[in-house]
Task: inverse folding
């Protein structure tokens, strides 16, 4: 095994261990996600035909916002305690280490939402084809959001109050993902094929995996200099 | 006697913070077995200079050369021979001393040296503390953990920003010994400190 992959794995492991030691914070995005979705029937209407129409949008918006609020934690603590300086000074490509950090972040924020989504879909009486489409779009979409978001976090991590700026930077880039994903779920509920939307999301994901780590690495160097 | 070859060469470095010029046309050469102590008042730009030498901040003007090549062009090769100890130690407070060292040494590409972990922990006086989370250590002990990391990485060039902060007399002696030993083996060190470092003729001074 090359030492680059060893470093990749060591960093993912370290971040998962850190997340595990902070279990309380770990649950925050997931709780937010569940609360928003479960409050909708109470606040709007418990009528199942209405909920079924709203379900794709509600679940996706909740997932997107939960992801957005937890985004800053990708690099915040590493920036504050100097671990990021050590990463930048590693002989391994910074983009590889960035990818490890994003993967670890997705595993602790994106993956739990992915596992919880079918249950929430059933709460909103989403039929089975819709649930499948929901899972598929979340599986492609949430890593995509983490990757794109990491660029924004890297740019704003050096600012004391970067939170608002981060939202402004990242939200416009999230909108295409939201549109294609919710559209795919609605179309699947209507019994139509969703190949087009899925391929488009996959293309975006391929683009993000190949380009976002480089952009994030460059942005981190700027934030640290 | 063989002629000394300069490994680290700073050429015409300038650094500005907004309108203020911290230093201009600064240059030095350092060869194997030599240490450079950077001195200056608070805010004189010592940390900025060290960050430039470590390649974290690009200088506004000038170059830093390592073995004759600009460190910005050969970043990966240079980083493999560099150990940097800054104001922020880069330790994770929730992880134990050993977990911290294992993770960061592999990330720094020095996984082979993990076999020496126990020895090095003894050397810095932390063998009893290996399983404690870093959060419960004192500031001086945290500094010692960072020193252990530096020893494990096995770099040629040490860049140390105020390494004596928070250390007791024993710790100060420890760093002086470690740096002296490092120089004996042909290493280089650049450090800022307000304290005298007993390294004799191998120590050069730079006043900012």
Result:
């Amino acid at each position: 095994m090359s030492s680059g992959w060893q470093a990749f794995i060591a960093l993912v492991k370290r971040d998962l261990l850190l997340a595990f030691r902070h279990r309380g914070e770990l649950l925050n995005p997931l709780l937010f996600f569940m609360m928003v979705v479960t409050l909708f029937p109470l606040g709007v209407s418990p009528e199942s035909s209405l909920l079924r129409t709203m379900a794709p949008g509600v679940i996706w918006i909740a997932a997107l916002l939960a992801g957005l609020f937890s985004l800053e934690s990708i690099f915040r603590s590493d920036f504050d305690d100097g671990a990021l300086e050590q990463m930048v000074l590693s002989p391994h490509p910074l983009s590889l280490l960035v990818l490890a950090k994003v993967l670890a972040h997705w595993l602790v924020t994106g993956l739990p939402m992915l596992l919880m989504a079918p249950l929430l879909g059933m709460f909103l009486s989403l039929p089975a084809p819709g649930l499948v489409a929901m899972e598929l779009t979340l599986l492609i979409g949430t890593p995509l959001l983490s990757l794109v978001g990491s660029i924004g976090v890297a740019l704003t991590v050096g600012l004391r109050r970067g939170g608002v700026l981060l939202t402004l930077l990242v939200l416009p880039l999230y909108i295409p993902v939201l549109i294609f994903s919710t559209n795919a779920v609605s179309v699947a509920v209507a019994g139509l094929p969703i190949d087009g939307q899925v391929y488009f999301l996959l293309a975006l994901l391929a683009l993000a995996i190949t380009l976002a780590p480089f952009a994030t690495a460059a942005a981190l160097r700027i934030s640290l200099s | 006697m063989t002629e000394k070859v300069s490994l680290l060469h700073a050429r015409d470095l300038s650094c500005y913070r907004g309108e203020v010029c911290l230093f201009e046309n600064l240059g030095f050469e350092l060869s194997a077995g030599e240490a450079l102590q950077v001195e200056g008042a608070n805010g004189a730009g010592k940390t900025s200079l060290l960050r430039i030498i470590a390649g974290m901040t690009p200088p506004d003007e000038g170059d830093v050369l390592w073995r004759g090549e600009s460190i910005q062009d050969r970043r990966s090769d240079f980083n493999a021979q560099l150990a940097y100890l800054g104001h922020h130690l880069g330790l994770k407070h929730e992880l134990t001393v050993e977990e911290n060292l294992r993770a960061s040494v592999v990330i720094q590409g020095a996984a082979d040296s993990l076999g020496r972990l126990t020895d090095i922990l003894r050397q810095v006086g932390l063998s009893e503390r290996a399983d404690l989370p870093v959060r419960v250590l004192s500031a001086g002990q945290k500094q010692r953990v960072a020193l252990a990391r530096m020893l494990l990485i096995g770099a040629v060039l040490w860049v140390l920003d105020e390494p004596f902060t928070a250390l007791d007399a024993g710790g100060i002696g420890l760093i002086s010994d470690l740096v002296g030993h490092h120089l004996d083996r042909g290493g280089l060190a650049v450090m800022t400190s307000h304290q005298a470092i007993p390294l004799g003729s191998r120590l050069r001074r730079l006043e900012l």
